[in-house]
Design goal:
Structural class: alpha+beta
Shape: globular
Strand order of the largest sheet: 1-2-3
Radius of gyration: 13 Å
Oligomer: single chain
Number of helices: 5
Strand content: 15-25%
Low-confidence stretches: none
Number of strands: 3
Mean pLDDT: 92
Length: 110
Amino acid sequence: MAELYSLRACMVSHLPAAAFAVHVMRCVQAELIRFDPQAAVHVDRGDGYVHLYGKAQGTAFSVLLTNSEADEWKADGPYALDRYIWTELGKKEIFPARMTPYLWSVFSSP
């Protein structure tokens, strides 16, 4: 019930898909840099896409989303896009060093 009234739930309901995707990618960016101060992580927004890319934990990565894909992830819930991005990073063997309040929200919400 609390999730229905969270700031993230409001954001997912009211932000355009690309703006929401940029916010999510910046959250991921902040965590990657927190865990690896040597990380170089970038977020770009272009016409019709949002792109998270760089190098963390010694591994290069790239997650590219079209605005329509971001909109689909938004429809799946406030943290669905975050989980997708962290799953993609996990495929590259880039993992969080520890749980943080943000990651707890990502992995414990429906």
